[in-house]
Every structure is written in structure tokens, then in C-alpha cells.
Amino acid sequence: MEGNLNLTLKIWRQKNAQTAGKFETYQVSGISEDMSFLEMIDVLNNRLIEEGDDPVAFDHDCREGICGMCSMYINGRPHGPNKGVTTCQLHMRSFSDGQTITIEPWRAEAFPVIKDLVVNRSAFDRIIAAGGFISVNTGNAQDANSLPIPKDDADEAFAAAACIGCGACVAACKNASAMLFTSAKISQLALLPQGQAERSKRAEAMVAQMDEEGFGACSNTGACEAECPKGISIENIARMNREYFSSVFTSK
Amino acid sequence: MAWLSKSLNSSLGKKLLMAITGLFLVSFLLVHCGLNATVFLNDGGVTFNEGAEFMAKNPIIRTMEIVLFGGLLLHILDGLRLWMDNKKKRPVAYAVIDGAANSKWYSRSMGLLGTLLLLFLIIHLKHFWYFSRLTDNLTEEHTLYNEMQAIFASPAVVAIYVLGCISLAYHLLHGFQSAFQSLGWNHPKYTPTIKCIGAAYAIIIAALFAAMPIAFHFNLIH
Asked: Where does the 4Fe-4S ferredoxin-type domain lie (chain A) (predicted)?
């Protein structure tokens, strides 16, 4: 797949969490505008391997925008310049010939760099483990329609559940806050009958874990919502505030 | 009460405190602006001076003055605490940030705007609060209205007041609607109205306040 884009890449290179990183500059040429951003990095890495250099480490898995693994901060924005896409769904036609592209890892106290562009997002797993679950009986699944759920509630819960946990909200936020992620996970359960058993304690437990992991507070700038590849709304953050304080002020 | 201090010290609690004290200060601005706008009645400051005297003597107002200083102090200290906590959350800064692509500059600059407002407030309190409450310079011959005329004769003072009002406008433009979001009040029925009222409030209050030093300076009111 040959093309005609020649680009200068400034990529953050960092050996591991213990050593300090720095930017390295690479030239890539003949890039097709039909390539995805990750394929462009693949081209660079092939060359680096052939030259005996260390390839650029980056997270990726499905490459179809649903797994939430890819996580590059491109020219000052998480997942690059386009709205509603992950890095793997960003294509090189969004860039122009001769452009310089700066690529950084997610930057947050709670997301330490593992290597180059790969960060450790297990803080999200611990927030989920603190309360992002429901209790169900074992055995056969019950009939799907045995619990009546209004369509509007189901839609709203589904919109929150679209969160893929990529961490772009944290990367975009000036405070490296995880409010959009945590609130989406609280909302998808708070809106459905299956989530009611643990509801009163869920928000308190998940917010406490979120704070302990070292994420910041919310300044309501709306940057997270604007950069979220799944379009998660900050209405969820308001719902989390309600869930949290109604639990704080009414629980026994 | 450990549960209360624990939750007020959480990331959500700090924002709740910010929202409650912020909205309280917003309500004060309405009273302050409304009373001061009586200078535009062009009655030589008669109504304004009567209002100022009522505010100075009424025991309920004097008590609220203490509550107001308390609320202001809480808002400042909580803001300072949030700013110090938040800046630790990204120890390695980005080399490139395209903030304009996803948010308004004033929503990202509330700490800076708040600091400018605090500096302005110190000057402003020295000009009028200190003069009227802590000195005995206020007489029948030299009323608060006369003091406004004297203070706003200086173009530098007028410039400082106008800059203070611009900081206030942007601080309110984000702060008003942001407070409702922190209180959990985000709903398709109300949020567009809240945002609209917030924007109108920010612009009208700041414009009215800014009009006062300008009008005094250019002798537009008598």
C-alpha cells in the first residue's frame, strides 16, 4: 500500500516506568492516505526492526474501534483530530503531506507509562472491582423480558455502557480526572433494575477508589465528552454526583 | 460526622462545596449590583446613599456580611485546594495541547480568573468597604456616593475595575452553569435554561458593574 504522504513523527520514547523518556524524531515516506494511524506506525516499526532498532511500543487489539486498547495522544488531542473515533479508526487522509505529528502517551499520575506509548490503565479495573458489578443467580439465564425496562431507560443505560474504557477522558482532562469513565459505569447499572441491589453503596465505593488511584477532580470543562470516541455524555457525571450524595446523605 | 468530612474531602465533595459557595456568592452579586445600579437614577445619589445606610445599619444585613466573608473564604480555600490537588495529577506535562479543540479557555482558567478577581476584590474592599466600615470618614457632607465620584476620577482605577468586571464575566460564564452540574442538576428540561440564564447573568451583572466607574469617570451621571 504505497502512498504519497511524507511525514515527520515526534514520538515519545521511554524504556520503562523507572527511566525518564524523551521525544525521538522519525521521517516516514510513501504513506498511503488509506492507512489507519496504527498501520502508519506499523510501517515505521517494520523499518526500525529491519534496521535493528527497538520498535515503538503501543497498545492495540481489535483495530476496529471497539476494544479501547489504542491510546495515543496525537497533536495535542487523545485519539487525534477526528470526532468519535479511536486511534485505530483514524486514517492518514486526516493529515497532510509534510506535516509534523507529535505522538505522546496518555499523561496521568494514575496511568504510569509502561513503555513508549503504552500506559498502565489497571486503575480502571480497580474502580470497576470496587463496585461496578451486579449480583445474579447462577444457573440458566432468565427470560429476557421477565423484568420490564422502559425503552428510554434501556437506551440511556446502553449509551453509558458504550464506554470502552480507553481512558481518552482522563487524557483530555486538564485534571486527569476519571469522572466520565466512572460515571458511565455507575450510570449503566443505576438505570437498570439489575443494578438496584448494590446501588446505594456503588457510587461511594467507586468514587473512593477513583480518588485513591490518583485521578483529579472535575472542572466541568466538557473536554472529556468532546474527546470521547463513544460520545459518552457528561450528564452521566451529574448522575454520579446525585448517586454519590444521595447515598452519602441518606445511607444508614 | 466523620462521614460528612470524608465525603466533603472527596473529589466530588470539594466540587459540591465549590458549587454551593459559588451560588451563594452569585446571589450576593445580584443584591450588590441591584443596589449600586440606583446611581443611574440620576438623583445625585440620594437613593443610593439611603440604600447604603440601610445596609450599614440593618442587623440582619450585618450578620449576612459575616456569612458572606465566610462563604468567600471557603470558596477561595476550596478553589486553592482543588487547584493544588489537580495539578499533581499530571506530573509529566504534554508537549502539545490543543485545548481549544475540546473546551472553552475560561472553563480551563477558573483558578486564574479567580485569582484576578481576588486581587481586584482586595483593591475594591480597600476603596469602599474599608472606607465606609472601618474609618469615620463617612459624613453627611462626604457620602459613599461622593466617595465613588472621587475614586473613579482616576483613569487607572476605572481600568482596574473594568478588567475586574471582565474577569467576573468569564468566571460567571463558566461558574454559574458548572455549579448546577456539580450539584447533579443536568437534565434536558432544565440545562438549556440554566446555561441561558447563566450567560445572561454573567454579561448583564458584569456590564452593569463596569458601567458604574465609566459613568462616574465621564460625568455621565449626576
From this structure: 154-184
